[in-house]
């Protein structure tokens, strides 16, 4: 990407680790029959750390859409029939249980028996209906999935959007703006009137749809708006980070900064800029994210080489625990930084973060990863935090860590191929 000499051997080793983590650590749990509800259909709403099933837990759109993305992408990348089988099953569950056939979009939460618990439609959650269907269509060519993905895109753009790359956070079932964030029974953030929260999951969904459609120009134009919003309003050159929520006049909302989101948005928006093909915008974003990623590299890792979740910008407090999804995003972002700059400090950080995951986050008893970890002078500890202790719940899913594996594999393949051609 930048014409630098890359360390092919280290990159290939990293790519092999990512593939192994997906095939041997993450997916064996998520493709297991243990989490399938044979009585009611779909998947259980909660599985605890000690593998106890709680079937009273509501089923969530976010979890189901993310699972469909993960299984579909695994099938597209690896070709193993088990991933196709699980993707087919999850798509049917998503459409039969969550999809709103009358108004479009999907219900946020339902009971195990399929009774609708919440019919509001926050854009955060609706993004995963679109993401799952688009990923499934891209992987399998399923026409119904592509139809629903396109339909959801049109709804988001015609009914939810109120400005370039700006969307109402919550909608009623029939697509009228609603109060609150509507995060499926969870306490979501509160926003000042007219505040803009960067819709990074919707952006990810549109990337999937762009590829599923073979390059739809309307989707491409919308992705450009999102990239421009980041470049023009969300980048804070003083703090060297991305403001994920801003007031209508462009001021930061709150004092908490999520380092995991700095990482996730960095490689996502650079991918979007590549799709858009606007060279001036791409160069501007390359400079922005070079600065953001150097800030992460220099300031946001703990002494054990693990990304802090985030910090209070007023106090500097970063907390003690480390959450699984931010660790995954750090791996991809540091590899992105290496591709962007050629600076081996990024590759070092990427490898050390991957080693930390392998040593402390991998659950060697039941598969997948633990949710929250603390490592200090007293040793290694599994602790409470975001998504609790559960192996499966409305927030704990195979999205971020499988996405890390797919992104690392794709990026390594591209970087080593470019190295061969230099």
Give the overall average pLDDT: 95
Number of alpha- plus pi-helical segments: 12
| Uncertain stretches | none
Distance between the termini: 11 Å
Please give the number of β-strands: 14
| Main sheet makeup | 3 strands, antiparallel
Helix-strand pattern, N to C? Answer: HEHHEEHHEEEHHEEEEHHEEHHEEH
Approximate strand percentage? 5-15%
List keywords for this structure.
422 residues; 3-stranded antiparallel beta sheet; 9% strand
List the helices and strands and how they pair.
Blueprint: H1 8-30, E1 59-60, H2 61-78, H3 81-98, E2 109-110, E3 116-118, H4 123-140, H5 143-160, E4 161-163, E5 166-167, E6 196-197, H6 200-212, H7 217-234, E7 235-236, E8 241-242, E9 245-246, E10 256-258, H8 259-276, H9 279-299, E11 310-312, E12 322-323, H10 324-341, H11 344-361, E13 372-376, E14 379-382, H12 399-420
Antiparallel strand pairs: 1-2, 2-3, 4-5, 6-9, 7-8, 10-11, 12-13, 13-14
Helix pairs in contact: 1-12, 2-3, 2-4, 2-12, 3-4, 4-5, 4-6, 6-7, 6-8, 7-8, 7-9, 8-9, 8-10, 9-10, 10-11, 10-12
